[in-house]
Amino acid sequence: MPRPEKHLFVCTQSRPEDHPKGSCSARGGAPIIDAFRAELEARDLFGRFKASTSGCLGVCEQGPVVVVYPEGVMYGPVTAEDVKTIIDQHLLGGTPVEALKVPADVWD
Ligand code: FES
After folding, report:
1. If you measure from the C-alpha of residue 42 to the centroid of ligand 1, how many angstroms do you get, rounded to a whole number?
2. By C-alpha distance, which of 101, 42, 48 is closest to 76?
């Protein structure tokens, strides 16, 4: 398998319903990875880009969260409608989608 140009991870972490952090699973992470995979397949882009699920990425309140490497750009909350935008602008265009990024102070 060739090395992908970019690799994105979609958090699908689940937690008990009453957990104070909530989870990307409860916020709709599974449909997001499905949408990325379907769109990449429809455009025959699997040879260039890879989409994987991940456990908690640490910013649960922003979920569902997506991170794109090698840049390490983190998006959230991502909706199914955002998937094509991220593919068009970031994966193919090389420019991260500023409006969909998690807040800059999320790690403070
Ligand atoms: S549960 Fe998704 S970032 Fe923590």
Report:
1. 28
2. 101
